[in-house]
Give the backbone structure.
Amino acid sequence: MSTPSTTVLPDGLLKSPGAGLVTLDPVHTALLRGLDELLTGLATAVAAPETVGPPLLPAAGLTRLDYFRNFPHLGVSAGRFTSDALDGLAVGESPESLPLEPTGYLLPSATCYGLLLSLEGRDVGEDGLRLSASGRCFRNETHYDGLRRLWGFHMREVLYLGTRQGAYEHLARGEEFIQEAAGRLGLELTRATADDPFYDKGGSRARLMALDPVKHEFSAPDGTAIASVNRHRNFFGERLGIRAGSHGPAYSACVAFGLERWVHALILTHGTPARALDRLRAAVPA
């Protein structure tokens, strides 16, 4: 059976609704969906069942995880109009001039936070726990750049909680999978230590990072980081009271894929969205 063709819209038909925001046309959407299907292969390989994380995260929970100390610049807060603003909205006043009140919640900046907070106080057992999820994530940035850097984007993560050795093995399998997937797609990636888990570049945690890196990124030839492997040690296990049976506080690790960035890297490598889609379809046969 032949593969259905994908509609190509005239150039310029779909415009950005704002800085850091994009609407994907059918070809780009097919690339994103196909890449997510390919990258979900890691979850299949490690037997990580699919989950759906929450659409909002409590600010109080993120505070306990040092989120605002580490990433004070990234958070996108969820606000709602005050009761005083409702009459104005009803008579057509511009919503941009009307007051908002905080809700105590933020939009997720990474998929794993919602999963980790949902496991607070649980025991994942002697054999540990693996979960996979894909969701929309949002980050305030100093600038935006096409699919490379967006205000809102899709992130696929495969999370492990369990023993220290299990966390190392999860990341080793993740690194192997990233390179395998890149090879199938004709992508050449470079691996490098990342320094972004801690905002305080001069503090003790930054020095610890230099001695014992906990995050490595895989980047396309233009420097766009499209995947990462992240070792959390037992930080979340201790902060959230997540145990791994007799092993005590759970160690955790995750492998993350920025889907729009994979789309960007594939087009960068193969020249056009159509050629990128042909390569993807060859790598993921129907």
About this structure: The radius of gyration is 20 Å. Residues 207-211 have pLDDT under 50 and may be disordered. The chain has one domain: 26-75+107-283. Residues 164-185 form the longest helix (22 residues).
